[in-house]
Design brief:
The chain is an alpha/beta fold. The protein is about 40% helix and about 10% strand. The chain has 13 helices and seven strands.
Length: about 300
């Protein structure tokens, strides 16, 4: 082995690689499946409606300005998100997808000798981030493919720094009840920070969506993560955000890279945020598909 490998931190060589799916076009070519446009890829939970037409138009307008660095503060996008959610701008943090935010939370809170609690069947990146910062990932079995919040609470140790709750959960698609979630958050020790991954929350009808932002307003130890990749159909641009106390946002800003959200992504996300009709269409499409699949399975 060369010094490129031997001089690296020993534990880095032992990390598992994230294996992304291959391009649909390449799979079609290899297997002789014909026109890639006729293939439906299920693995990535992409929005089959595509982006909002308003977002597409905003990207076209922004394209001629790509020689200019983006707004490193994402001022207008953070302001719009804050207004829509009823929080202050300094309670909103923008990330290069919610994945970057999860990694930055690991950067802030995890190290050797600490741990994080998560469901055994949840987003794999939680476990990968633990490995990246040499923290122990405590994986708790699900109950009926749903987060077992009581068991997760019992798994918390004195060295636990983060607890991840994906709701709705990826990959099982299940949701915990709002009352159970609120009780869980109220029961956490003061030294534990809850990471509420709500990448799919807009796909729930508004009356079913939990009011997790009230825990931010109450200055609880929570980070609420959301994304423009799923419901807003902007997965290719990688735009996510966290809502947290100003102190929590300040910590993330200390470890993020400058200009982490590119200018086209900011323009598209700002336009998509204003298109409530497209979001409603997406929600209706998912509900229709869920009913079709459930009836077919029965």
């Amino acid at each position: 082995m060369s010094a490129v490998t031997t001089s690296a931190k020993g534990w880095i060589n032992a990390l598992s690689l994230y294996q992304p799916g291959r391009p649909v076009e390449e799979v079609a070519r290899e297997l002789g499946l014909g026109d890639p446009e006729t293939i439906v890829k299920l693995a990535s939970n992409e929005n089959s409606l595509g982006p909002s037409p308003r977002a597409v138009e905003a990207m076209k307008k922004a394209a001629s300005q790509m020689h200019i660095y983006p707004d490193g503060d994402s001022f207008y996008l953070r302001s719009a998100i804050a207004k829509k959610l009823g929080v202050s701008r300094n309670e909103v943090f923008m990330g290069h997808g919610s994945n970057e935010i999860i990694a930055l939370l690991g950067h802030v809170y995890l190290e050797s000798g600490t741990s994080a609690v998560m469901s055994e069947q949840a987003f794999v990146v939680y476990k990968l981030v633990c490995a990246l910062y040499q923290a122990e990932a405590i994986e708790v079995p699900t109950r009926d493919f749903t987060h077992d919040l009581d068991a997760m609470r019992a798994a918390i140790r004195p060295d636990t720094r983060l607890v991840f709750v994906a709701n709705p959960n990826n990959p099982t698609g299940t949701v915990v009840s709002n009352d159970a979630l609120y009780g869980f958050l109220d029961s956490l020790p003061d030294y534990v920070v809850a990471v509420l991954d709500e990448a799919y929350v807009e796909l729930l009808s508004p009356e079913r969506q939990p009011d997790t932002l009230r825990f931010v307003r109450e200055r609880k130890n929570v980070f609420v993560l959301r994304t423009f990749s799923k419901s807003y159909g902007l997965a290719g641009l990688r735009v996510g955000y966290a809502v947290a106390s100003p102190e929590g946002v300040a910590l993330l800003n200390r470890v993020r890279q400058p200009f982490n959200i590119n200018a086209m992504a900011q323009a598209a996300a700002l336009a998509a945020l204003e298109d409530d009709g497209h979001l409603a269409q997406t929600r209706a499409m998912v509900e229709e598909g869920l009913n079709q699949l459930s009836q077919g399975a029965r």
